[in-house]
Description:
The chain folds into two domains: about 10-25 and about 30-175, Beta-Lactamase, CATH 3.30.450.40; about 195-380, Hypothetical protein af1432 (Orthogonal Bundle), CATH 1.10.3210.10. It is about 55% helix and about 10% strand. It has 15 helices and six strands. Strand 1 and strand 2 (about 65-70) form a beta hairpin. Bound molecules: ligand C2E, succinic acid (SIN) (2 copies) and fe (iii) ion (FE) (2 copies). The site of one fe (iii) ion has 5 residues, from loops. The site of one succinic acid has 10 residues, from helix 3 and helix 4.
Amino acid sequence: MLKLPKHFMTETENLRNRLNLLLQFGGVVYKETRLDKLLELIAAQVKKALDCDRCTVFILDKKTDELWSKVAQGLQNNEIRMSSHKGIAGEAATLGKTINIADAYKDPKFNQEIDRITGYHTSSMLAVPLKDVAGQIMGVFQVINKNSGRFDSDDEGVLELISSIAASAIENAQLYEKLYKAQLETIYRLALTAEYRDQEDTAVHLKHVSAYTALIARGMGLSETEVENIRNASPLHDIGKVAIPDAILLKPAKLTEEEYTEMKRHTFYGGKMLNDAESDLLAIACQIAECHHEKFDGTGYPAGLKGGQIPLYARIMAVADVFDALCMQRVYKPSWNPEKAGDLIRSESGKAFDPAVVAGFEKVFNEIAAVSRAAEAKDAAPRKKIR
Length: 387
Ligand code: C2E
Ligand code: SIN
Ligand code: SIN
Ligand code: FE
Ligand code: FE
C-alpha cells in the first residue's frame, strides 16, 4: 500500500490517498475467512500502511477477560495473552479510546512484561480499540515503533479507519470459524452414531480414516482445501450402516450371500441420507458414502462405476477404508499388521484401487503405518468387550 509523506500532499490528495488505502485494505482482507490467516494479513498490511515495525491485533476473549494475539511477529509460540485491563492495549480496550504514546517506557501504564518475553524494545505505540457492529469492544489494534519516530494524528486517523474494516472482517471470520466448527462437530457426532454399534473402537476408527485419507490426499499433492475436505468428510463414509439390522452388522462370522447383499446397501442408504446437502462438506460426504465401495476396474458396488467415473474423494476413501478394515480387528476377522495390509493395497492397484491413489498412499506409507501402530500399542492391553 502506498502512503506518501504528508508534506507532499494537499488535503484532497491526502483524503484520496486514504480512501484508496481503505479500498485496497477492504478488498484484501474480506477475501480471507480463516481467522489466523486474516490476522496475519491485517498485521502485514497495517505495518506497510503506517510505516512501522510491528502490528499486533489483540482479540478480546470475553470468557477469560483477556486480550490474546497470535500475530506478534517474532514470538516463538506466537500467542500472547494478558489481562484486558493491563497495559496500554488494556487501556484502549477499557476506555474504548485511541492511545498514542511517544515513549512507552516513560508511561507507567505500559506493560513491560511482553517486551521482556519477546526480547523486543517498544518505543512509540499507537493503540486503537476494535469495535464490532454493535459498538462493543472486540479487541485492540496496536502498532509499534514508527520508523520515523512517533505516530502523529494522521496515523491515528488512518488506523481508526482501518480498524473499523478490520473489525468487521474479523467478526466475519470468527462467525465463519464458529459455524465451521459446529458443522465439524455435528458431522463427527453423526459419524459416531453410525459406527457405534459396529465397532469397539469407534472413535479410533474414525480418527484413522480421517488421518489416512488426509495423508493420502497430501501424498497425491492435492490442495490444502481438498486435504481438509476429505479429512472432515471421510468419517461419514459408513453412515448408511445405521440402517443395517444388528443380525447382519454384528454377525461374528462370514456373511451369507443374502446377508452380504443387504450389507452392501449401506452405500445406498448413506447416499440417500446425505443427498442434496447444502453444505460442501456434506456433499463430499455424500459422494464418499455412496461410492467408497466402487472399484477402479468397475467390479465394485453399488453402481459398478469405473476409473474417473468414481469421484476422486471416494477413490481415496476406498484405499483408506480397506487399509483400516484390514488393520483393525473385526467381529469377523483378526487384525493384520500394516505391512501385510499395505501389500494388499499395492496388489490391488489398477484393480480395486486407482493407481494414482495407491502411489499417494505409498508416499506417505510410513506416516500411515505409524498412526496404525500407535493404536495397536494402545490395544495391547486386554480389550473390554462391549458385546
Ligand atoms: P468394513 O469391515 O469396514 O470393511 C470395509 C472393506 O474392507 C470391505 O468392504 C472389504 O473391501 C475390505 N475388507 C475388510 N475385511 C477384509 C478381509 O478380511 N479381506 C479382504 N481382502 N478385504 C477386507 P466390503 O467387503 O464391501 O464390506 C463392507 C462391510 O460389510 C464391512 O465393512 C463390514 O461391516 C461388512 N462385512 C463384510 N464382510 C463381512 C463378514 O463376513 N461378516 C460381517 N459380520 N460383516 C461383514
Ligand atoms: C501494552 O499494551 O502495554 C503492552 C503490550 C505490548 O507491548 O504488546
Ligand atoms: C469381500 O471382500 O468380497 C468379502 C468381505 C470380506 O472379506 O469379509
Ligand atoms: Fe463401507
Ligand atoms: Fe469403514
